Amino acid sequence: MVLQRIVFLKLGGSLITDKTQIASPRMDTLNRLAGEIARALRCQPDLGLVLGHGSGSFGHVPAKKYGTRQGVFTIQEWAGFVEVWRQAHALHRLVLDAMQDAGLPVISFPPSATVQARSGQVLRWDSANLQHALEAGLIPVVFGDVVFDQMIGGTILSTEDLFEHLAPVLKPQRILLAGIEPGVWEDYPECSQIIPEIFSANITSVKKSLCGAATTDVTGGMASKVLQSLDLCKRVTGLQIAVFSGETPGLVGEALSGALPGTRIHA
């Protein structure tokens, strides 16, 4: 199968779970999103999709309790590592089931089984099988997960960390980050004005508006996502990234069809 375009889509943990309640999926939202993705892809048979999702109220809670992102050394921390793994994979199963029920040919690529890290960064990840899946017309699914780390025992890699490693290899045209916010707020916490675009020339002024997540998020919140996204756009020619709300019905489908809603990030 010849793919003309590749897009990465992340369904944020705040979008597909209730982050105020432990291990609480938003199944109505997840099923709606699966339907939107399926309809968009049926109209674009030449579009290759790599799907990712956050851990939301599943993985982030034990991750914060045990400090898993910062390293894993003690017996108690390894027990926490396993609990984060268990929770992240429980949500992953729900995501896969929703996508399969919508008729999407999803296949899982769990980072804990395939990625090796060093000091919290991807060290090795053989993406050949993932690329093969794309070429076969399948939808590889990755997600925020625990991984083993050469220097700090274990850690957590977010979906953005995984996309950052895959993008220079697969060269997607767009990365779509769907959460619950309509974009990046210029005046958080008042939240009355969205920043329409972020690029190298305005990042200095934008930085003062950025903040971490309002709820538990061990992988950095909005500020981390924006800075990571801008850096990636500088390294992948032509890449554009959209931060937008998946709460608005139809918007994920529109984004997959070419729109860049919310805040657009580019080099």
Summarize the structure.
This protein has 267 residues and is of the alpha/beta class.
Throw out a few tags for this protein.
22% strand; Carbamate kinase; alpha/beta; single chain; 8-stranded mixed β-sheet; 10 helices; 267 residues; 40% helix
Protein described:
This protein has 267 residues and is α/β, with parallel strands linked by helices. The protein has one domain: Carbamate kinase (3-Layer(aba) Sandwich). Helix content is 40%, strand content 22%. It has helices at 13-16, 27-42, 56-66, 75-101, 111-114, 128-135, 159-170, 203-207, 221-235, 251-256; strands at 5-11, 47-53, 106-108, 116-118, 121-124, 139-143, 145-149, 153-157, 174-179, 184-185, 194-195, 197-198, 240-245, 263-265. It has an eight-stranded mixed beta sheet with strand order 3-6-2-1-9-13-14-12, sandwiched between helices.
Structural class computed from helices and strand pairing: alpha/beta
Q: By CATH's scheme, which homologous superfamily applies?
A: Acetylglutamate kinase-like
The coarse silhouette is globular
Describe the strand arrangement of the main beta sheet, using strand numbers: 3-6-2-1-9-13-14-12
CATH structural architecture: 3-Layer(aba) Sandwich
Specify the helix fraction band: 40-55%
Residue-averaged pLDDT:
92
What can be said about the biggest beta sheet?
8 strands, mixed
CATH C-level category: Alpha Beta
SSE succession: EHHEHHEHEEHEEEHEEEEHHEHE
Whole-number radius of gyration?
A: 17 Å
User: CATH topology, anyone?
Assistant: Carbamate kinase
Number of strands: 14
Query: Which regions are unreliable across 5 or more consecutive residues at pLDDT < 50?
Result: none
Report the span from N to C terminus: 31 Å
What is the overall number of helices?
10
Strand content: 15-25%
How many separate domains make up the residues?
1
